[in-house]
Amino acid sequence: MPLVSIITPSWNVEGLIEETIRSVQSQTFTDWELLIADDCSTDKTPEIIAGIGVRDPRVKLIRQAKNGGPALARQASIDQATGRYLAFLDSDDLWLPEKLERQLAFAKEKQAALSYTAFRRINETNTVAGRLIGVPVSLTYGQLLKNTAIATLTAMVDREIAGPVAMKNEGYDDFCLWLSILKRGHTAYGLNEDLARYRVRGSSVSSRPLRSAKWVWQIYRNVEQLSLPRSAWCFAHWGARAWLKRREF
């Protein structure tokens, strides 16, 4: 069985998906499966994935029956994952070649239920790379409520330590997942190394700051069921960190 199952939702990324897959195929650690759940793309995305899968059986296409958004697509990939570790990579983002090797060694050393790394942003054409976005050494549940540090493309979950992994069909389903793991008493650990590239696209799900803020508030109140004062306190810290992260490319 592959040690790492890579969880990837896709939708209408025919111009980007091959580069994303290539960044996985270029990993120095090779014991992986890439599970791409296509959310009813109307372009050639699924055909591109299927074609690559013929040449590399580690790349597996999962076709969603109807368009349901990234949370349900991620869950479809998780449902078919066979690896102990789950790594998350969106269909327009990239990994540097040593990402899996370095993070696996780090996660094993820390016995981390959840780990994450530093990264840089890139523009849509991959011609500009931004500043290094560093990460804190560790995060507890209470600290993560006030933080934006765990970028999806950098996250890795050890299922043997973390326990059940299930996505909630919410905006920022990934944030909900990290919180659900840490709420069990685990600590997340950060590897402050430049190992991933987050692509900034105007059409991406998380590209609108006001909508992102609304989603986070809803998670505080409806999912985590925080009191109004605690929600406001966490939201103030989250908003400040989000602004600091966005103010410079």
What does this structure look like?
The chain is of the alpha/beta class and 249 residues long. 38% of the residues lie in helices and 22% in strands. It is built from nine helices and ten strands. It has helices at residues 17-25, 45-55, 70-80, 99-110, 141-144, 159-162, 173-182, 209-223, 228-246, and strands at residues 4-10, 32-38, 59-63, 85-88, 94-95, 114-122, 129-133, 138-139, 156-158, 188-199. Strands 1, 2, 3, 4, 5, 6, 7, 8, 9 and 10 form a ten-stranded mixed β-sheet that branches. Helix 8 (209-223) packs antiparallel against helix 9 (228-246). It is globular. The model has no long low-confidence stretch (mean pLDDT 95). Residues 5-134 form the Glycosyltransferase 2-like domain. This is Glycosyltransferase family 2 protein. InterPro entries: Glyco_trans_2-like (IPR001173), Nucleotide-diphossugar_trans (IPR029044).
Can you tell me the residue ranges where pLDDT is under 50 for at least 5 consecutive residues? none
Inertia-based shape: globular
Order of helices and strands: EHEHEHEEHEEEHEHHEHH
The total beta strand count reads 10
InterPro entries: Glyco_trans_2-like (IPR001173), Nucleotide-diphossugar_trans (IPR029044)
Protein name: Glycosyltransferase family 2 protein
Domain Glycosyltransferase 2-like: 5-134
Topology readout:
Blueprint: E1 4-10, H1 17-25, E2 32-38, H2 45-55, E3 59-63, H3 70-80, E4 85-88, E5 94-95, H4 99-110, E6 114-122, E7 129-133, E8 138-139, H5 141-144, E9 156-158, H6 159-162, H7 173-182, E10 188-199, H8 209-223, H9 228-246
Parallel strand pairs: 1-2, 1-4, 2-3, 6-10
Antiparallel strand pairs: 4-9, 5-10, 6-7, 6-9, 8-10
